[in-house]
Amino acid sequence: MNGNENKTGSGKKIIGGILLIVLLFIGIKVVFWGLDQVVPPEKLRGRPDVSASQSAPEGREAPSFCVHCGKELPESFEWGQFCPWCGEKNKG
Q1: Overall pTM surpassing 0.85 (yes/no)
Q2: Is residue 56 within 8 Å of 75, Cβ to Cβ?
């Protein structure tokens, strides 16, 4: 008799484990669905490059050195961007 009782007990454990996995899977799906409702996908997309929208004023060259710390700036640097060394905004 003990042999049959062990088989039914282990069968219940297996079914319980499978049921637990299914419930966890559904729970994770519900959590991500809820996050999708709270944070729309538009906010998760990359923001446009800030330097693309800021161009140097006509007739003025971009600075070679930071006006605040004096360190050399990258060639692609333009007026209105923040210095990569000190973090200050270089206004033109």
Answers
A1: no
A2: no
